[in-house]
Design goal:
By secondary structure, this protein is α+β, with helices and mostly antiparallel strands. The chain is built from 2 helices and 8 strands. The chain has an 8-stranded antiparallel β-sheet, with helices on one face.
C-alpha cells in the first residue's frame, strides 16, 4: 500500500510521501538490505548508482551516499543522503540534499516472520522549475514516486527470496 500526499499549501512545493510495504522476510534481513544503500542497485531497478562520499561511524551515522536515480518521468535525479540515525532493526533516518532536499525515515516492524516497512519522505525539489511547477505537476510527481517505490518493493521482495537478477524498472 502506498499513500503519497500533495505538496502542502504554503510550503513551496514540499511533499510528504508515505509508502507501506509488507515483506515476507524477517526484520533483520529487511534491515540488512535497507541499511546497505551500496547494494540497492542490485535489487532496486530505478537506483542506477550509489557512491560513498563520506564513510560513517561503525553504525553508519555521518556517512554520506550519492544516489543516482532514474525515474518513470523523462528525467534523472541525484541526491546525497547523510545517515542521521540508525536504531537496529527498527529505524533509519537520513537527510537529503541535491535534487531533493529534506528527510527520509524507514520504519521497520516485525510481524511474525514478516516485516512491515513504512517509508516517510518529506522533501522539496531543489530545482527551481520543479518547485515552481509543483502545484501543477504534483499528480505526476506522486505517480512517479509511487512507481519508483513499488519497483523497490518488488525488487527487495525478489532479493529477499534469493531470486536472480533485477526486476524490470516498470515492475
Amino acid at each position: 500500500m502506498h499513500r503519497d500526499a500533495s505538496p502542502r499549501p504554503g510550503t513551496t512545493g514540499r511533499f510528504d510521501l508515505v509508502s507501506h510495504w509488507h515483506l515476507d522476510a524477517p526484520v533483520e534481513r529487511v534491515w540488512a538490505a535497507l541499511a546497505d544503500p551500496a547494494g540497492w542497485p542490485g535489487w532496486w531497478p530505478y537506483v542506477r548508482r550509489v557512491r560513498t562520499l563520506r564513510e560513517g561511524g561503525p553504525d553508519g551515522i555521518g556517512g554520506v551516499r550519492r544516489i543516482d536515480w532514474s525515474t518513470r518521468l523523462p528525467y534523472r535525479i541525484a541526491i546525497e543522503v547523510e545517515a542521521l540515525e540508525a536504531v537496529r532493526p527498527l529505524r533509519l533516518r537520513g537527510r537529503s540534499r541535491g535534487g531533493l532536499e529534506g528527510e527520509g525515515l524507514w520504519l521497520l516492524r516485525a510481524d511474525g516472520a514478516a516485516t512491515d516497512v513504512t517509508h516517510v519522505w518529506r522533501v522539496r525539489p531543489a530545482r527551481g522549475w520543479m518547485r515552481a511547477l509543483s502545484p501543477l505537476l504534483a499528480p505526476a510527481f506522486r505517480w512517479n514516486h509511487d512507481g519508483v517505490m513499488r519497483a523497490g518493493e518488488a525488487g527487495l521482495r525478489a532479493h529477499l527470496r534469493g531470486a536472480a537478477g533485477r526486476p524490470a524498472a516498470g515492475a
